[in-house]
């Protein structure tokens, strides 16, 4: 009886506390800590959100963007660990937050950060030079099987999303590519257009310019369905006309990179609620919709349970690839 | 002449009262940012990006690029006056700029720097105007081996005829290479030489090292020599400015050579810093006899400044046309471009002519504004040297540390500034050259990456560096620059049995 009463009382208290939950608001300038250098993918992500928040008056406090892209973004995540419990710092990254500690010995773990939301999924495509002989993903795979270890496959960074995907293609098909890491997607795009590598797995936005110019062309996209309808991009071909890799017989259902936002661990629940609320509103602004369309990313507002299960699936799947390649650091 | 019409159209867009105001404002802000070491153009431009949300893309890029030009101008000021490079690309300007200022000719040094900077920028913009299409195709031919060849050439040009003892140059160079390899390696993804220190994860910032080596190091030497600047405060006269301008045509060969080096390094991502070093090195090798470089030779100022600015302007081209920024500032601007909803790439020139040509036209105008503004400030800056050391000395210490902190907001960097200050002092006292160290820090990691990528592509065969005419000829020039001067020296020494120099 007493137990029930306490429970009811607690429930009532919690209900009463709900309106109060939303009342936390930043009282100092909020730092947007970006896990990439200026001009990188995460940087554009963070600055678009900054612009959407400022232009639509969704945020009372001033925003300062800090780039901490050292060590493939580890610098930003270490910063979160050093500032545990600080409610005025948001960290912007991808899945590197929870994947990096698997491949490098670093002084932070994913538990040092609290996931707030994922707002977009960036797609991966296989791209080849416009005049390459390959028509489908399997053509490229067959060519690599015929001459193992000779076809150069460009990507950005080492043991990051690009190399993981190439490794996944190799593990799925038994092909063997020669992976060459460069500094960033833009550089890889030009290396492909100039014919210095045979293929890359760039995000849509990274290769868009070269595709428009007809220097490179996509073979397939690693997503469960085709991408959204769009205006024709190159010739009469738009994003929706690109087949999925599964359609072409490459058995990789989906490979997407979430654009994520994190808080240092140890903040109060109302802080989390405040930012989730603000970010949900961001997802509805025209600036955000414009960003998604321009960069051909898929909008996906993931918070709470949904986000947690996405992270888990993504992490276990990727770690399996790491283990097969022998990249795990521990 | 399609480009000419487009340029005229661009002028119509660029020259409006609003845009002129943005240019003046941008250049002025850039000057301030450039003068303060550490707070370089990339930081300044990224601080401004939120302000551009309210502008249309053309106005926004005009504001940002004007700030960049301002910062490039401002960066040379402190190099010349206090031996503290305000920008990484103005390190090479300290070699002759500072000695010239110290000998009482600060007005001359500043005017030379600003004028050749303006000329360099102009050369760069003209090239962009005329060769927009061709240049981006040329840049496309650069793969990993070609990049390595370019970096190799930069090293070779600079080191080939160093006047310091070869062993000392080697020590300085390898120290720089070692420092450049700290942090996470792009190609292998391994963390190197951090000794478990989290602060070293992102590597040792080149700017922090430079502020320590030059700023604090020089200050320590000054203190040892009796607490005052060795500079004789010169009479400050606007006529000196005009006299120096009349002197400029004499250095036409250096100017053209440096302009070309700048254009090349701007279009192929070597960047302004590499350009200024390379052009200084080449000027030293090519110039006729006279007082040695490093003692205040005018060519030693003209060469790096011209190359720096023509590279800075040309760097806009690969950014717009290929989406590859060849300087840190261009990278930040590219981020801005994406936020404004523009996709850099070959099609940008066709789809957004207003934006592209408005920007190019604005580069003519804002560089002109820049030159006028900085020349007007020459007497003011030169007067800084008249302030007694007891006042300006502590201020320099503060500026150095604030600058060191601003680079990445890390208090660990303050220790680095101090440590490298001591290193700089010792190097100077023991006659170890600082320049190879700085050059190795700027290019070391890039060169290493390009080398490693080439080795992956070729399965470990060095033949890849001679696999096509482009890469082979760059390598050949590099090797020639490295070997020839010494061989010639040796040859003439054997013949005449008298030491040269």
Automatic annotation (TrEMBL), chain A:
Keyword tags: Signal
Signal peptide coordinates: 1-22
Keyword Coiled coil: no
Assigned protein family: Belongs to the UPF0065 (bug) family.
Domain of life, per lineage: Bacteria
InterPro entries linked to this entry: BUG, Bug_dom1
Name assigned to this protein: Tripartite tricarboxylate transporter substrate binding protein
Annotated Pfam families: TctC (PF03401)
TrEMBL record, chain B:
Keyword Membrane: yes
InterPro entries xref list: DUF112_TM
Bilayer-spanning residue ranges: 6-36, 109-135, 147-165, 200-220, 319-343, 355-375, 387-408, 414-442, 462-484
Keywords from the UniProt entry: Membrane, Transmembrane, Transmembrane helix
Domain DUF112: 20-439
Protein name: Tripartite tricarboxylate transporter permease
Organism listed in the record: Paracoccus siganidrum
